[in-house]
Amino acid sequence: CLVYLNGDFLPLGEAKVSVLDRGFLFGDGVYEVIPVYGGRPFRLDEHLRRLDNSLRGIRMTNPLPDARWADIFGRLIAGVHDQYLYLQVTRGFAPKRDHAIPAEVNPTVFVMCSPIAPIPVSGVRAVTLDDIRWQWCHIKAITLLANVLLRQEAVDRGAAEAILVRDGWVTEGAASNVFAVIDGVLTTPPKSSDLLPGITRDLVLELALENGVPAVEQRIRVDDLKSAAEIWLTSSTREILPVIELDGVRVGTAEPGPLWSRMQAIYQAYKERLRSA
Ligand code: PMP
């Protein structure tokens, strides 16, 4: 499978970036992960809008028009129906290592494909951890050290995800958004700089509205999460994942809940419709 790097399509092993790239030295860049189903990028416009917003958030402009992105994606995904696209835009190469942004710098643009991994739909364990990240979590920055350490802490404790808590309020997962079923209502924290505006999160809310599932965007106290009937994690790579154990305590009946089963069916039907459209 070929990758795209700064205008060229080439084998992964031949794609090389300078060690002076600001992405490497400072984590100075942003990224997107876009699922491809049936050979079509899923929720493409939404991902490209978020890319624009992330770039603007770090004082960059989108290096390519939407049509060019779509063209690159089309060439990379040819022949494989279901996979992910990973794209990364860094500030680019600068001859001198200096925190301040150089006046003249050209972005590094990289895109690759990766295979879809099976999703553990029978449910996963999660742990709550203190949200130690910076305060601009709405930007999909490649600077993921805190997320890496938090996810590893979760893995060390036998869990699949860390659910992050800031001042007693749930923000999101280390690489996912969080939903909880509280008093029969599907609840997720409202968008703010504390969390990434997940494309899957927005789709779940949209599908809930369309299908008469009661849902609200409302802050969740960690104590309310701990007594929630159901907890889900959402992301482009894991879709809607039920959490069956939180901090060693079972969630509901320790099985994927009834509302999850309903939303999972709705979500899969939506994917199928797009696949065959
Ligand atoms: N929050 C964080 C911190 C993430 O890294 C991700 C996925 N990369 C998400 C939420 C979920 O976003 P999406 O549904 O767009 O994949």
Automatic annotation (TrEMBL):
Molecular-function GO terms, alphabetical: 4-amino-4-deoxychorismate lyase activity; transaminase activity
PROSITE patterns to which the protein is assigned, alphabetical: AA_TRANSFER_CLASS_4
Gene3D superfamilies, sorted: 3.30.470.10, D-amino Acid Aminotransferase, subunit A, domain 2
UniProt entry tagged with the keyword Transferase: yes
Cellular-component GO terms for this entry: cytosol
Pathway membership: Cofactor biosynthesis; tetrahydrofolate biosynthesis; 4-aminobenzoate from chorismate: step 2/2
Source organism, top-level taxon: Bacteria
Keyword terms of this UniProt record: Aminotransferase, Folate biosynthesis, Pyridoxal phosphate, Transferase
GO biological process, one term: folic acid biosynthetic process
Function of the protein: Involved in the biosynthesis of p-aminobenzoate (PABA), a precursor of tetrahydrofolate. Converts 4-amino-4-deoxychorismate into 4-aminobenzoate (PABA) and pyruvate.
Homology family: Belongs to the class-IV pyridoxal-phosphate-dependent aminotransferase family.
The protein's name: Aminodeoxychorismate lyase
Organism the protein comes from: Methylocaldum marinum
